[in-house]
């Protein structure tokens, strides 16, 4: 029924476009392009319907993708796979067969001409076409996927060397092949994955921890997993602990897991209430030397702090002072000012800013060579301060009488509209009427 409705909608759209083109005296190139697109979509839908209603011989399906093969090749063990998928496997899990788990001496791929000819003939007889690899739904789960994950999870209960090998492969699989991510949407599976690090993060092999946390990150990309992971207290606790301890890559990837899960509002509350979550992110922002790590931790904190209750927690952990320090050191200025503006929406954030020289700092930023987005955030924060602290409103007024900072931005021909509007609004709040530019002489 859904396919029939989609076809009907496409036909109606195509009919309207063709009528418009035929009957109008002139038509645009875009009209023709839209008509071609609609016709192409209708053709694809027709082919898809035919294909779905046809039973494909099992030997024509790639064991990795579960789809009809377009370029069958023979692997070193004699199994046949579709080239794009086995090439990806070889790149990620070198010298291990996807089906037999044999360690291989080489990974040469030989075209299977016989199977290719048989598939081509079958497609002709059934008047259908095989999908190109780039069009395939890589989220389809096969028995081979399940068996491979089950085998690797078993290795995670064995020696450290076997654990490290299995963790590395799981990390690679969930990164490159989306189908594997869906298999971790089961609490038993995710608990088995994290079992090697569940007792004590501090005593775990650093590389093992790094690969397991990164596997969780890769799996969290799969949307349904966000709900399952967010409701798992044990998983959240391990992720929070990993933000604090481990290699810098493990810490930043744990922070990115928090960012990923924070796409859901419920998860922001759950993670924000987890002991140490916000404190560990703030510490990572402060301690990290690599810009990319600071950015990932700041992104995670920003995502959590879109929930009001978490803003106050971040302020209590000293986030405002650390952010001001990063800006002063010219580190990720745009990003840090966005985070500062986010936290300034909390009453405690405004108070901390006022007590730590926030007003002169922000006014100085406005007079510097800051980007327009940084100026917008500076003005956002000053606007909030004006509405909550009369003493700071006076300080802004006194600064304006000396420097004309806000008036200059409000009248600037190169300021964005947002900058002009915010600057004018602050001028009104501090009781300074923006002076109009002189009228040209007649």
Describe this entry's structure for a reader.
With 442 residues, the protein is mainly α. The chain has a three-stranded antiparallel sheet with strand order 2-1-3. The N and C termini lie far apart (73 Å).
Please specify the SSE layout and strand pairing.
Layout: H1 2-23, H2 29-52, E1 72-74, E2 80-82, H3 83-92, E3 110-111, H4 113-125, H5 143-155, H6 160-176, H7 179-182, H8 187-194, H9 206-220, H10 223-230, H11 233-244, H12 248-261, H13 265-272, H14 277-287, H15 291-304, H16 308-316, H17 319-328, H18 333-343, H19 347-355, H20 358-367, H21 372-388, H22 390-403, H23 405-411, H24 417-429
What are its keywords?
about 450 residues; mainly alpha; three-stranded antiparallel sheet; EC 2.3.2.27; ubl conjugation pathway
